Amino acid sequence: MPYTGALSENVEEYLEAIHRLAERPGGASTTALARHLRVTPASVTGMLRRLRELGMINYRRYHDIALTEDGQQRAHDLIRRHRLAERLLTDVLKVPLDEVHQEACRLEHVVSPRLEQRIVDALGRPASCPHGHPMDMDAAEAVVSLLDAPLNVDLVIARLDNESPDVVRHLSERALVPGAQVIVKQRDVTAGTVVVETPGETHTLGIAIAETVCVRPPRRKR
């Protein structure tokens, strides 16, 4: 029977981390969780036992960790609150984009369902967070990174997959944020760089950052 009680902030952090890591190459493992959350492998092992007892994960030692249906829903709810908090901080409180992720990490654990609905209504039911991620986990659009995008084609930045303050600040200072128009002009694997052009400017990005910037074709005007 699914666990219906409240979850601690620590448990929620693990569910969110497992969800995020499961979408990356390598998946969610004990080692990856320890690195992501900056805790010891022993701490991770103890929490995984707890999550399994709560029915939130399927886990066998030395295998990847998978969220159960209940765990997946809990993670989705948490991430949605996080993205709504980011939208509130950006749109209403005018917090700089490179600061909203860490602030939202604190807020996501204290937003009640009633407050969440009030935020949704106040913001006009936003479709995405300021980094470009959809509020509805099932509504993600098809995108490619700047590493895989075609050269010399009009594109639009759809989302930023790396929300760390340093990376977001680096991109924001160059106006390389969701909604920006870009053209990939050059890709040099040997040099480890990607050259992109925005209206009136040219920027050179390192491959590590370029692969976290996702783009799509411009939408046709109706």
Give me the secondary-structure topology.
Elements: H1 9-22, H2 30-37, H3 41-53, E1 57-58, E2 66-67, H4 69-91, H5 97-107, H6 113-122, E3 144-145, E4 155-160, H7 165-172, E5 181-188, E6 193-198, E7 201-206, H8 207-210, E8 213-216
Overall description:
The chain is α+β, with helices and mostly antiparallel strands. It has 3 domains: 59 residues, Arc Repressor Mutant, subunit A; 67 residues, Iron dependent repressor, metal binding and dimerisation domain (Diphtheria Toxin Repressor, domain 2); 73 residues, SH3 type barrels. The strands form 2 sheets. A 6-stranded antiparallel sheet has the order 3-8-4-5-6-7. α2 crosses α3 and α5 packs antiparallel against α7. The longest helix is centred in the middle third of the chain and has 23 residues. The radius of gyration is 19 Å and the shape is globular. The model has no long low-confidence stretch (mean pLDDT 92).
Radius of gyration: 19 Å
State the shape: globular
CATH topology of the largest domain: SH3 type barrels
CATH domain class of the largest domain: Mainly Beta
CATH architecture of the largest domain: Roll
Reported for the largest beta sheet, the result is: 6 strands, antiparallel
Compute the number of helices. Answer: 8
Mean pLDDT across the residues is 92
Gap from first CA to last CA: 48 Å
Number of strands: 8
Q: Strand arrangement, largest sheet?
A: 3-8-4-5-6-7
Domains counted in the coordinates: how many? 3
- The amount of helix comes to 40-55%
- Beta content comes to 15-25%
Full CATH superfamily name of the largest domain: Ferrous iron transport protein A (FeoA)
